[in-house]
Amino acid sequence: MPLHDKFGRAITDLRISITDRCNYKCVYCRTGNEGALYGDLPFEDYLRMARVLVGMGITKVRLTGGEPLLRNGVVNFVGELAGLRPELDIALTTNGHLLADLAAPLKAAGLTRVTVSMDAVDPDRFARITRVPNGYDNVLAGIRAARRAGLWPLKVNCVLMRGCNEDQIIPFGMFAREEGVTVRFIEFMPLEEDRVWSPSTVVTLDEILARMGEYRPLVEIPHGRSETARRYRFEDGIGEIGIIAPVSHPFCRRCSRIRITSDGKIRTCLFSVWDHDLYAQMRRGASDEQLEDFIRDVVAKKEERHHIGEPDFVPASRTMVHIGG
Ligand code: SAM
Q1: Ligand 1 pocket test, candidate residues 25, 26, 165, 320, most atoms within 8 A of CB
Q2: pLDDT tens for residues 88-111?
């Protein structure tokens, strides 16, 4: 029986955060300080969790963090995941800083595709957002290495935050066309450590479309049911963009995800106010069948939707860097 929650949603996508350490301090995510960490687990523990979940109908595993490429042994881990089931879709979300040297080995190990986060196409702005000098060239080299390695389709995610980088919309449209990547704009969500979010800081889907339309006409591409992004191509056929609009156009009814944090907790929603300690079950000596029962119980309780911007909104119990986006 594949995993379903009580609202009838099939759970097929798993995100595993393999560390909550990060080498960037992006303004929409972290504070400028290091801050406390929840820590991470040996890869063999994540592998067991993934094996049990793949046996329960998970078809896609995405590695994230923190910054997943900071973990030594990540290439080997991808190889072990690939051995769990033929055609398991294994994806990675990374800031791309360390990707140039790792793209080809990751592909050879069985990684299917990669999403690189990049929030400006201008080196100075990029440094101000990430609070890291000279990262831009590394990330660009990482994107190009991923393309050469055949990590395809290659997506570049840009979180837009008002007053910070909304002027990057058209430059990113040009970037998508020149680099042959899909640029996806993400609406800023209240998951940042600095608690600066307010509705007015969100650059919405409608605004992004209007701004990009001033550059070139767009044509909407029909999207798959569980796809979070609305997809558009430029009318002349060169270049694709996507918009992920969890704030202005929530897609909770189609959500197919659960997450495992770097310290082994299951989160059923980005905005969960508690998590479920899968690792504690393993430490207690639970069998695979007992883990399955635990997971089914947890998934049944998955939240119906988030309440961003509503009067009853309660902030998530963790910020994005400690969840794994
Ligand atoms: N370090 C990796 C990276 O930079 O892609 C993986 C972890 S990062 C937390 C995962 C994704 O979450 C990134 O695409 C990032 O831009 C996004 N993200 C972080 N904070 C966010 C926020 N407050 N709202 C929307 N997206 C956010």
Answers
A1: 320
A2: 999 999 999 999 999 999 999 999
* Ligand 1 midpoint to CA 259 (Å): 14
Spacing, Cα 165 to ligand 1 middle (Å) = 15
Question: Helix or strand or coil: residue 251?
Answer: coil
Q: Please give the backbone phi and psi of residue 158, each rounded to the nearest 5 degrees, phi first.
A: -125, 115
130 lines ligand 1 (CB under 6 A): no
Q: Which of 206, 187, 320, 161 is nearest to 245 (CA)?
A: 187
Model confidence pLDDT, tens digit, residues 169-207: 999 999 999 999 999 999 999 999 999 999 999 999 999
Test site for ligand 1: of 118, 143, 159, 189, most ligand atoms within 8 A of the Cβ: 159
Closest CA to 249 of 312, 220, 206, 210: 206
Q: Distance of alpha carbon 26 from its chain centroid, rounded?
A: 14
Is the pTM higher than 0.90? The answer reads yes
- DSSP states of 41-90: --HHHHHHHHHHHHTTT--EEEEESS-GGGSTTHHHHHHHHHTTSTT-EE
Tokens 């969960």, residue? 272
List CB contacts of 252: < 8 A, sequence separation 6 or more.
269, 303, 304, 305, 306
